[in-house]
Amino acid sequence: MNNSPITSLTTPGLLTDKVAFITGAGRGIGAAAARLFAREGARVLLAARTEAQLKAVTEEIRTADGTADYVVCDLTDPASVRAAVNRSVELYGRLDVAFNNGATGQPPGPMDQLSEADFDHVCAVNLKDPWLAMTAEIAAIRATAKHGAIVNTSSVGSLMGTPPTACVRCGEAGRQQPHRVGSRHLRPGGIRVNAIAPGTTLTELLTTAAEPP
Ligand SMILES: NC(=O)c1ccc[n+]([C@@H]2O[C@H](COP(=O)([O-])OP(=O)(O)OC[C@H]3O[C@@H](n4cnc5c(N)ncnc54)[C@H](OP(=O)(O)O)[C@@H]3O)[C@@H](O)[C@H]2O)c1
Questions:
Q1: Residue that wins the pLDDT comparison between 16 and 169
Q2: Contact yes or no for 106/163 (Cβ under 8 A)
Q3: In what order do the strands lie in the sheet with 148-153?
Q4: Which domains are delineated in the chain?
């Protein structure tokens, strides 16, 4: 991925004084978001399972005078997800922004060849986690910052059929629902919910997948 600054497209300091929690932040899109949010003034908390990757991105942000920390978190484990979200408040005293971006792929192949275990794993990470994380994030935002924003990563691939990764596509489509429902129910309470649908982005997820999203 190209990690070069894109400050010409943003207002410097857009996230000054904000605290942002980002899942899937050890590499790829989540790591790029963590760098950008920090560059815009946010104090960021990075979450994923691979500590070495989290540490590397955190140190990179600190070297650039940003404020960052990380928490090791497994998105399939509800207690781990809640603890990670709450760590934002423990560390920084508040939560303003949550980017639910972490996701997994699936072994490519026809949907009838996918094992039940793989189906359950993809659903746990890509479908159940955003709901789990959002429940904890809404509580943390309401208890601290009062107003905030939640962004869930979906995919342009969810809008079309790509048979070798059908289960992943179902999860991505499902990740748009909290946006549709949440934006109506949470916005009056001061929490904005959006979904983004990236196109092809050269990350590990893509290079290990059967075909582009
Ligand atoms: N790349 C694309 O072309 C593309 C296109 C459309 C949408 N997207 C979406 O963009 C998001 C980011 O994808 P990416 O391309 O940046 O992928 P990536 O480089 O593979 O990064 C995925 C991140 O999710 C984390 N993750 C995976 N399983 C996890 C688990 N069980 N618990 C905690 N963290 C977990 C990974 O860390 P660990 O493995 O260390 O836990 C990693 O930090 C995903 O939601 C993906 O669906 C990507």
A1: 16
A2: no
A3: 67-72, 43-48, 19-23, 97-100, 148-153, 191-196
A4: 12-207 (3.40.50.720)
Give the C-alpha separation, 123 to 173, whole Å: 11
Ligand 1 pocket, residue 178 CB under 6 Å = no
Q: What is the mean pLDDT of the chain?
A: 87
* Cα separation, 15 vs 192, whole angstroms: 15
Give helix then strand counts, H and E, for the chain: 8, 6
Residue 73 CA: nearest ligand 1 atom is 33
Is a pLDDT exceeding 80 seen at residue 153? yes
Q: pLDDT tens digits for 29-51?
A: 999 999 999 999 999 999 999 99
CB-ligand 1 contact for 168 (6 Å cutoff): no
Using DSSP bridges, classify how beta strands 97-100 and 148-153 pair: parallel, antiparallel or unpaired. parallel
Burial of 108 (0-12, 13-18, 19+ CB in 10 A): middle
The angle subtended at Cα 103 by Cα 101 and Cα 107, nearest 5°, is 160
Determine which residue's CA is closest to atom 44 belonging to ligand 1.
Answer: 103
* CA distance to 4, 26, 52, 87, 93, per residue, from 59 (Å): 17, 11, 11, 18, 21
Count the helix, strand and coil residues of the chain and give each as a percent rounded to the nearest 5.
50, 15, 35
Using DSSP's 3-state secondary structure scheme, residue 176 falls into: coil
